[in-house]
Design a protein that fits this description.
By secondary structure, the protein is an alpha+beta fold. It folds into 3 domains: 6-26 and 81-326, DD-peptidase/beta-lactamase superfamily (Beta-lactamase), CATH 3.40.710; 367-407 and 524-577, Beta Barrel (Lipocalin); 418-521, Nuclear Transport Factor 2, Chain: A, CATH 3.10.450.
């Protein structure tokens, strides 16, 4: 995959071997990881995973569905969007040009853009590479039709948030600016330069902005609270790749196998010389007040469990999540993605790392085959008490699992546990920010809502569209009731109930660090999945908090059962309505 002129297609297709690569499950560790990930698939994970140890692939396999409507499974060849992991390739392109004598990372922007105002012209490439240029995180929605000249004009008009070189401020806009530098310095479109100077030298023939004919059917579809997000190609893009709100900072499509080839390329001189790799991987500035992580050029630097270097980056776009971790001295790497916002591949990667380095972690208990008649017997609506108003748990039977949907805060706590200590403080702060943003939104002011979101412009636009549609169905929006914050599938989500004249809806605010990755409005709270681990007994597991809960379906035969729920918040028995 790549961004190319049509005339180059026949040449590229001759270079790409046809046929899918075999999936790999090798050795005891590979088998253990495969069994673990198969269990997570039943809890809701879907994606692909590659793990290497001592320079050898021990696992490369897909899990769950890449396309739910068509029943297309994830495989080791499934193509997915790596979002912000793309930044490391932009950084490599800049250093490749430095190797060729066409620029230096100490160069200032005025060398490439003489019309830049003095404050922007003084910014160095090094400052852009390390997120210390003082630029905001974004300068508009990712999908906005924004050509390069219009993007540059917007950069020139933007006020810097801090003097260049003084402070770490993560900036997607800064990496888009680097992509523009690559085009000027090379005299070639950014996607073409990446293909010829970065991807192909590394052997990565399934990576780029635009899939080839053989890779297009392998594109995964993404899913979030709004439903089917589609593939990356279903969203606004220029003919040769993303528009400039995304180009350089995201938008690259790839496979786990190609990320392994990138890992191998960075172990040698295929793309970058030893001197440039040292510059590429050197930590320059702390990302927070803690010692780690520190930012290099397109990577977060920290220490591996063995005490050696760990270079990693995550990416997400509101549907896809990815995590890529390299351990150069250990000869190890992890590449993982997921195509749903309600199951975090980043949280799963933490467990894979622990397993890879022999550290303990919570593993879901051994599961047993589900009996369809037992699942059906436990389904129904159950009454909950203990909250300010009567609540219910709705239990439905699906293939191999029970789906338990809470109605209010009591059910949330029951299923996910009551946060304590630092988590309680963090969750409370998020809920306060959501409450303030919603209060302002009711007054017609969407700036606070945009301010808590990663993609501020897109968030405001999406909110207007959703509320227009919802109010047409349910009448005027009249208020909000906070329900709580929880981790579900490794994703931290704040829930609230939106009150309309003729009904209610549920607000879900999914967080990526201190900002909201996306905001959705749905008919009901997100459910928890319970899988059988014994006769009439079921278990749920959150991969981020290591929370394990049990549900026992009591009663026999046709008698109306009761449910005994055992979790971090205690044990409670509820009866079917």
């Amino acid at each position: 995959m790549r961004s190319l002129r049509p005339a180059l297609l026949p040449l590229l297709l001759l270079l790409i071997p046809l046929g899918a690569r075999a999936e790999v499950v090798k050795g005891p560790l590979g088998a253990s990881l495969d069994s673990y990930l198969n269990d997570l698939t039943r809890f809701g994970y879907s994606g692909s995973v590659l793990v290497a140890q001592h320079g050898e692939v021990i696992l490369n396999k897909g899990y769950g569905l890449a396309d739910r409507a068509r029943g297309t499974p994830f495989t080791s060849d499934t193509v997915f969007d790596i979002a912000s992991i793309s930044k490391q390739f932009t950084a490599a392109a800049v250093l490749r040009l430095e190797m060729q004598g066409k620029l230096k990372v100490e160069d200032r922007l005025k060398r490439f853009f003489p019309d830049a105002p003095p404050d922007k012209g003084a910014i160095t490439l090094h400052q852009l590479l390390t997120h210390t240029a003082g630029l905001p995180e974004t300068l508009g929605p990712e999908g906005e039709v924004l050509p390069r000249h219009a993007f540059l004009k917007r950069v020139y008009a933007t006020r810097l948030l801090s003097p260049p070189g003084q402070k770490f401020l993560y900036s997607n806009a800064g990496y888009s600016l680097l992509a523009a530098v690559v085009e000027v310095a090379s005299g070639r479109p950014f996607g073409e330069f990446l293909r010829d100077q970065v991807f192909l030298p590394a052997g990565m023939r399934h990576t780029g902005f635009i899939p080839d004919a053989q890779d297009r059917p392998r594109l995964a579809r993404g899913y979030n609270g709004d439903g089917d997000w589609g593939t990356s190609l279903d969203h606004p893009r220029a003919p040769d790749g993303p528009w400039w709100g995304l180009r350089g900072n995201g938008g690259i499509l790839t496979t786990t196998g190609d990320l392994y080839l990138w890992f191998k390329a960075l172990q040698g001189d295929a793309v970058l010389s030893a001197a440039e790799r040292a510059k590429y991987e050197k930590p320059y500035i702390r990302e927070t007040g803690a010692e780690y992580p520190q930012y290099t050029y397109g990577w977060s630097f920290s220490k591996s469990p063995s005490g050696h270097r760990k270079l990693a980056h995550v990416g997400g776009n509101g549907a896809f999540q990815s995590d890529f971790r390299r351990y150069p001295e250990d000869g190890a790497m992890i590449a993982i993605d997921s195509n749903t916002d309600d199951y975090s591949s980043i949280a799963v990667a933490n467990h894979l790392e622990d397993w890879l380095f022999g550290k303990p972690f919570v593993d879901p208990v051994a599961l047993v085959p589900a009996k369809e008649e037992e699942l059906r017997r436990c389904a129904g609506t159950y009454e909950l008490t203990g909250g300010a108003a009567p609540e219910r748990l709705t239990v439905t039977a699906e293939k191999e699992r029970l789906v338990v949907t809470p109605e209010g805060p009591t059910g949330l706590v029951l299923l996910s546990g009551k946060p304590e200590g630092k988590r309680l403080k963090r969750f409370g702060a998020r809920e306060e920010r959501v409450s303030e943003a919603m209060a302002a939104a009711r007054r017609g002011d969407l700036k606070p809502l945009a301010g808590i979101c990663v993609d501020a412009g897109e968030a405001a636009k999406h909110w207007r569209a959703v509320m227009t549609k919802t109010e047409a169905q349910l009448g005027p929006w009249q208020g909000i009731t906070m329900l709580g914050t929880r981790s579900i599938g490794g994703q931290i989500v704040t829930h609230a109930r939106l009150l309309f004249k003729k009904g209610t809806r549920v607000l879900d605010v999914a967080w990526a660090g201190s900002l909201a990755d996306h905001v959705t409005v749905s008919d009901r709270l997100q459910p928890a999945f319970f899988l059988p681990d014994g006769p009439s007994r079921f278990v749920t597991f959150d991969v981020s908090t290591d929370t394990v809960g049990h549900l026992t379906c009591e009663g026999t035969g046709a008698a109306a059962p009761s449910l005994r729920l055992e979790g971090p918040s205690g044990t409670i028995t509820v009866r079917r309505k």
